[in-house]
Write a structure and sequence with these properties.
This protein is mainly alpha-helical and about 200 residues long. The chain has nine helices and two strands; from the N terminus they run ααββααααααα. Strands 1-2 form a two-stranded antiparallel ribbon. A hairpin with a 4-residue loop joins strand 1 and strand 2. Helix 1 packs antiparallel against helix 3 and helix 3 packs across helix 8.
C-alpha cells in the first residue's frame, strides 16, 4: 500500500507544484521545494499564501487515486469503513506521502526516495496530532466534515483511470493552526446558513 500511495503522490506532485516545468532549473526547483516545506505550505489550498490548511486538492487526489480507482476498489469493498473517509488517519497518511514525494526534489533534481516508516513516522504522527487538535478546537469535528467531503468527491469518480536537507518534522506553526480553526468554523457556519436558507425556501 505504501508503494501505491507513493506512486500516486509522485505523479501528482509533479503537476500540482509544477516540478515538470523544465524551465525552472535546479536552483528554482530546490527553492520551490524549500518554500513548500516551510510551515508545511504544501498542505494549504493556496500554498503561496498558506491559506486553507488541509484543503490542498492533492490530498484528495492521492486518496482518490489509491482507494477509489476503478481497478482498486478498496473503498467500495469496505463501504462502512470509508463512508465517510476515515480522517484523521488517512488524511495524515496522504499528507506524509506527499511530503515524501516532495523530498525527491530536495536537491533540485529528481532523486528517488524510499517511503520508509523509520524516516516518515515522525511526520505522520505530527500531522495526526495536528488534525486531532483541530477536532478538539472546533464545535463540530473538523475531520468528520472533511471525511464526508472526501467521500463525496472520491466516490463520484472525479479522477480519471488511468538526508541532511531532509525535513524530519512537520512544521505547521501555531498561527497556521489558529487560522485552520477559524477557517473550519467559517466553513461550518456557511454550511449552517445554507441549510437554514434551504429549509426556509422549502417552507415558502
Amino acid at each position: 500500500m505504501r508503494g501505491q500511495l507513493k506512486e500516486a503522490a509522485h505523479v501528482l506532485v509533479q503537476t500540482s507544484y509544477r516540478f515538470t516545468d523544465q524551465a525552472m532549473g535546479v536552483s528554482l526547483t530546490r527553492s520551490s521545494y524549500l518554500k513548500l516545506l516551510e510551515d508545511d505550505a504544501y498542505l494549504h489550498n493556496d500554498y503561496k499564501t498558506k491559506k486553507g490548511l488541509w484543503y490542498h486538492s492533492i490530498l484528495k487526489e492521492v486518496i482518490c487515486a489509491v482507494f477509489f480507482a476503478k481497478w482498486s476498489p478498496e473503498a467500495i469493498r469496505y463501504l462502512d469503513y470509508f463512508n465517510p473517509v476515515p480522517p484523521p488517519t488517512l488524511v495524515a497518511l496522504a499528507a506524509t506521502t506527499v511530503h515524501a514525494a516532495l523530498d525527491e526534489y530536495k536537491t533540485g533534481m529528481f532523486v528517488k526516495v524510499e517511503f520508509k516508516a523509520d524516516i516518515y513516522a515522525t511526520i505522520y504522527e505530527e500531522h495526526l496530532a495536528n488534525l486531532q487538535a483541530l477536532d478538539e478546537a472546533v464545535p463540530d469535528p473538523f475531520t468528520a466534515m472533511l471525511g464526508t467531503k472526501l467521500w463525496e468527491m472520491c466516490s463520484d469518480g472525479l479522477l480519471p483511470e488511468d538526508e541532511d536537507s531532509h525535513q524530519s518534522r512537520a512544521t505547521i506553526t501555531e498561527k497556521q493552526k489558529a487560522d485552520a480553526i477559524c477557517d473550519a468554523k467559517e466553513r461550518q457556519e456557511r454550511i449552517r446558513l445554507e441549510q437554514e436558507a434551504a429549509e426556509r425556501a422549502e417552507r415558502m
